[in-house]
Design a protein that fits this description.
Strand content: 15-25%
Number of helices: 12
Distance between the termini: 38 Å
CATH architecture of the largest domain: Alpha-Beta Complex
CATH topology of the largest domain: inorganic pyrophosphatase (n-terminal core)
Bound molecules: manganese (II) ion
CATH superfamily of the largest domain: inorganic pyrophosphatase (n-terminal core)
């Protein structure tokens, strides 16, 4: 099913891999898995992340993470591959230019429901729990021998984290099949689940105490919201990356259907993370504000004062919650 991409991969010598801004475990996992796999096939591979973008501490558990941005971009690559990037803006301004100007052929591997095409070739499977799930099938069909423990570990990292530890709606029979085949390579799945999905730093724990104690609920507790202000970050010595996962505590409340995390990133600019349960499609709300993602996990940016942003988000969320209740 991937013959055209397979043929292309065999014919190239130099490859540049591109990650998305604010990289998560699926993005880093798919990039490092692709890096090791192609290196095992004898290709020359560079991995790029937009300058000044931060990689979360817990991702340093992944093999070969030090090669990210180890080289500056060369003037010419046979192939450029974007991983887990749903739109060109997700690459960051500088890296989008490198992909556009320095790569002869461009491919994208992605699994986002809302996707805007920006490469010559697109491998998009929106039913896949993670980008790494697609990559595993591709690697297996292409040259199984080049999959080793490091490749399997990076693939599993994306799988466990993007599937919400195999609990989101996107987790399918295929997800479990891929997981079991990866574990057969000797992947330490207990360690990956703990470090990538469950564990938090002491400072991030304090940040969560602060914001969760101020959580607000609407629509008979079906909608829950937490907000992170500059002040919250300052008093707990934390940053944007430390907000990751805190919203899950809210969606885990029995009554909650939709949980929002609203993070102040600059004046009048807020990053919103949405988490939902079951069939409630949070990405519809994210798309309304120009963002996107998956049914149970999505994101967007909303502009305006804190009150305006809250007002807008609450009213759109209420609309979708009422619509969902009507259809039950
Ligand atoms: Mn992903």
């Amino acid at each position: 099913m991937y013959e055209h991409v397979t043929k292309l991969l065999y014919s190239v010598e130099s490859v540049a891999l591109f990650m998305h801004i604010n990289p998560d475990a699926d993005c880093v996992g798919s990039s490092l898995a692709m890096y090791k796999y192609l290196t095992n096939l004898g290709k020359k591979v560079d991995v790029f992340l937009e300058p000044f973008e931060e990689i979360r501490d817990n991702l340093y558990i992944l093999p070969n993470i030090e090669i990210i941005n180890a080289n500056s971009p060369a003037s010419n690559y046979d192939l450029g591959i974007a991983l887990d990037c749903a739109s060109p803006t997700r690459l960051g301004k500088k890296m989008l230019k490198v992909l556009e100007n320095c790569c002869e052929i461009k491919i994208s591997f992605d699994h986002h429901k809302s996707y805007s095409k920006f490469t010559d070739i697109l491998v998009l499977e929106s039913n896949s729990a993670s980008t790494t799930q697609i990559l595993y099938k591709f690697f297996k069909e292409n040259d199984k021998e080049a999959i080793d423990l490091e490749v399997a570990t990076c693939l599993y990292a994306g799988l466990v984290s993007d599937s919400g530890n195999f609990s989101y709606n996107s987790t399918t029979v295929e997800t479990f099949e891929v997981a079991s085949e990866l574990i057969a390579y000797g992947v330490d799945h207990t360690l990956l689940a703990r470090v990538l999905y469950l564990e938090t730093s002491y400072n991030a724990f304090n940040l969560s105490l602060r914001v969760l104690s101020n959580a607000i609920f609407h629509c008979d507790k079906k909608l829950a919201i937490i907000t992170f202000s500059f002040d919250d970050f300052k008093s707990t010595s934390t940053k944007l990356v430390d907000t990751e996962g805190i919203v899950n505590s809210l969606v885990n409340v029995k009554e909650v259907l939709l949980a929002l995390s609203i993070v102040e990133i600059s004046n009048n600019e807020f990053k919103v993370g949405l988490r939902s349960k079951g069939n409630f499609d949070s990405s519809l709300i994210a798309e309304y504000f120009g963002g996107g993602g998956h049914k149970n996990a999505s994101g967007c940016k909303v502009f305006g004062s804190k009150l305006e942003v809250l007002d807008k988000l609450v009213s759109i969320s209420k609309y979708y919650i009422e619509k969902y209740d009507e259809n039950l």
